[in-house]
Amino acid sequence: MVDEDQTIVIVGGGLAGAKAAETLRTEGFSGRVILICDERDHPYERPPLSKGYLLGKEERDSVFVHEPAWYARNDIELHLGQTVDAIDRAAKTVRFGEDGTVVHYDKLLLATGAEPRRLDIPGTGLAGVHHLRRLAHAERLKGVLTSLGRDNGHLVIAGAGWIGLEVAAAAREYGAEVTVVHSGQTPLHSVLGPELGQLFTDLHRAHGVRFHFGARLTEIAGQDGMVLAARTDDGEEHPAHAVLAAIGAAPRVSLAEAAGLEIADRAYGGGVVVDEQLRTSDPDIYAAGDVASFPHVLFDTRLRVEHWANALNGGPAAARAMLGQDVTYDRLPYFFTDQYDLGMEYSGWAPPGSYDEVVIRGDAGKREFVAFWVKEGQVLAGMNVNVWDVTDPIQRLVRGKTQVNTEALADPHVPLDSLVS
Prior knowledge:
It is built from 10 helices and 26 strands. It is an alpha/beta fold. The chain has a 5-stranded parallel sheet. The two termini are 38 Å apart.
């Protein structure tokens, strides 16, 4: 156990950082906990930014991890709106804030997250071009969708990943016209492959979304600083009053890189290299959440996971490891989405090319089913769509790595629990 004379510094005020601070206290650490956040808002959760909060169904206060008074009550030294600009590994200090405050650490956690990838095309400086990563982005975008819906305006979305599709669904619920431009042939190809990507194409088309596949934006045209249209590399032009860049996120590794920490190859998603205890190449520095690239023994590869559950579980795991506890971080990747009347949960890891077949249990046409990505009879991942309370058996199937009868797997009358050895 780390004693009361020691200091743990957490850089990054998202879910991973806030849950790490909470865990340090619940595990009995009585030393200094310093949490440095470059946003002025208290630490918050990001899923509502493209779901309930964006739709106006959740209040602003509901997104925060803890009420503001929690930090003082638990003796967490919270610094909002402060950027860490240097780590001195030899002196074990970090420097942050406009006045260059320097604090010593015994253990340091990097929970710096990720940032939206930018469109590198003419017109991105126009007033109607948006990203969605932070609470301020969601607040601005909510106002934009409201006005687009009221005025029958057009939103063009670059990218058909989770953020792009969730915003498309929200925009249609507000009444806006929506066009999604995507370089692939189906949405979510890198996660779901073509088989299930088509499900989301059909879902959104049924709600009036237009897709322009196999193309990229090349220019955003405007007048008097406002967006008028979006042009693609195949010569098409789409009317637009606003554009959302949703082309992915990049791990925020500049601070770690400048400190000389090992960075993962882009083939593995980039990020700060950590071991199974979430410890970086410096034994006194840890990383968790979107920025961490960790080895997953089940899939025999290194993963960087940009989803809520990874931050929720990774922050506490890093906190326990910093306290000297025996930690092996091997959580299955898990994420969820809500779009229109479709709710979905996904567990596992099965990128295109890693599986032999997709087995469907239930009625895909009615969007009430479970899909399994299978290789040589082993379940690599499972996704339940409008079918609930099956995440635990799905995850046990993935972890079990046992041979499964695919006919039984596809039969809704065969309990999933009976297939888990």
